[in-house]
Design brief:
Blueprint lengths: L2 H31 L4 H27 L2 H26 L2 E2 L2 H21 L4 E2 L1 H22 L4 H10 L10 H33 L3 H13 L1 H12 L3 H25 L5 E2 L2 H23 L3 E2 L1 H22 L5 H34 L1
Antiparallel strand pairs: 1-4, 2-3
Helix pairs in contact: 1-2, 1-7, 2-3, 2-5, 2-6, 2-7, 2-9, 2-10, 3-8, 3-9, 3-10, 3-11, 3-12, 4-10, 4-11, 5-10, 7-8, 9-10, 12-13
Length: about 350
């Protein structure tokens, strides 16, 4: 493999991360300076900004005729966001879960994941289905604006502090506009280099584009979410750490698949492997959030370790599958018949115990 290919891949990754950071900061300050609620900025502009690498990569893969990378990027990013980012963040400090996430955003994330699974049963995601997802993005933003008007001043102040809203008045609009434009430019250039490098990796290693998208590209484009959530956890903004992940997952489905799919000529072809394994895993990962979030309205350290362990297991499965390792069937059986049932049992007992505690308090 040529060093130039590796160099462009790394540069593309750096441009994506830097571009996303510049875009988030510039757009959030600009939005707040225009009088938009800090909560709306946090749930829309910031979530969209941290998901913008996935969107740019998605559009680039559509233009380049590499739809498998697009699907792998979205599915892999959503799995990575929940299992790895929430896992690591919870290990740093237990995460607080807001009631809005439990009542609205997490069920929406689960519903959208199921919708994607239903859409791809014919082995494709048509442009009409992508349009439905893109229109869903508009509806989600409008609903978030409506919800923000009902939030308390304390919540709005929290988002303002977390995303630098307090310094908005100290900056000029031209500077913020330049930051937004510069961030978008860096994202566009970085996505081009990253996709070209990922395709070269896949061809050189004999690994499918889907696997590359699920691992290298998904992890790379999710680094803004990693930085945002981990920093928020360290700073004690624990509910924001969770909200960033859930919001980004929603945007990945609605914006990345929805808008990205509109750039394809005949829709997005979806492989049998993605339909049978990877997308169902994305649905399961989204679904497990609800009972975990419900128990005590927090993610404890042991639950964080559980999430992180499952990401390691999922990555191990991808590697064994890609290399056609003889231990794959043993590993899959152990996960399917031992680890997963044991996890469901423990989570179920925890949920029942939490319900009884709430009844006793009530």
């Amino acid at each position: 493999m040529q060093l130039a290919t590796i160099g462009f891949f790394v540069l593309g990754l750096l441009f994506l991360i830097g571009g996303a950071e510049i875009l988030v900061r510039g757009a959030s300050r600009l939005a707040v300076a225009m009088g938009i609620s800090p909560l709306v900025v946090g749930l829309t502009v910031v979530a969209f900004g941290t998901s913008s690498p996935e969107l740019m990569v998605s559009i680039q893969t559509a233009i380049s005729g590499q739809p498998a990378l697009m699907v792998g990027n979205v599915v892999g990013s959503n799995i990575f966001n929940v299992l790895f980012i929430l896992g690591v963040s919870a290990l740093i400090t237990p995460l607080i879960i807001s009631q809005q996430l439990i009542r609205w955003d997490v069920p929406l994330m689960i519903g959208l994941s199921l919708l994607v699974l239903i859409f791809v049963q014919d082995a494709s995601l048509s442009r009409g289905e992508c349009l439905i997802l893109a229109l869903g993005l508009v509806a989600y933003v409008l609903f978030t604006i409506y919800q923000s008007r009902r939030e308390s001043k304390a919540v709005q102040a929290e988002y303002a502090e977390a995303f630098g809203a307090s310094s908005a008045k100290a900056r000029t609009w031209p500077v913020d506009l330049l930051l937004v434009a510069g961030g978008l430019g860096a994202l566009a250039l970085g996505s081009r280099w990253l996709v070209d490098g990922a395709v070269a990796f896949a061809e050189a290693l004999g690994v499918s584009q889907l696997v590359i998208g699920l691992t290298i590209v998904a992890i790379g484009t999710s680094l803004p979410e990693v930085a945002t959530s981990i920093v928020a956890s360290i700073r004690g903004e624990r509910d924001i750490a969770v909200g960033n992940v859930v919001g980004s997952n929603i945007f990945n489905i609605l914006a990345v698949l929805g808008i990205g799919g509109l750039f394809t000529k005949g829709g997005i072809a979806v492989s049998e492997t993605a339909i049978a394994i990877d997308i169902p895993v994305m649905v399961a990962v989204a679904a497990i959030c609800l009972p975990l979030f419900f128990t005590g309205s927090r993610i404890s350290r042991w639950e964080g370790a559980l999430l992180l362990g499952y990401y390691i297991a999922y990555t191990a499965y991808l590697i064994l599958s890609a290399t056609r390792n003889v231990r794959l069937s043993v590993f899959a059986d152990a996960m399917l018949y031992v680890v997963i049932p044991a996890t469901l049992l423990v989570v179920g007992v925890t949920v029942v115990r939490s319900l009884r505690q709430k009844e006793a308090v009530g």
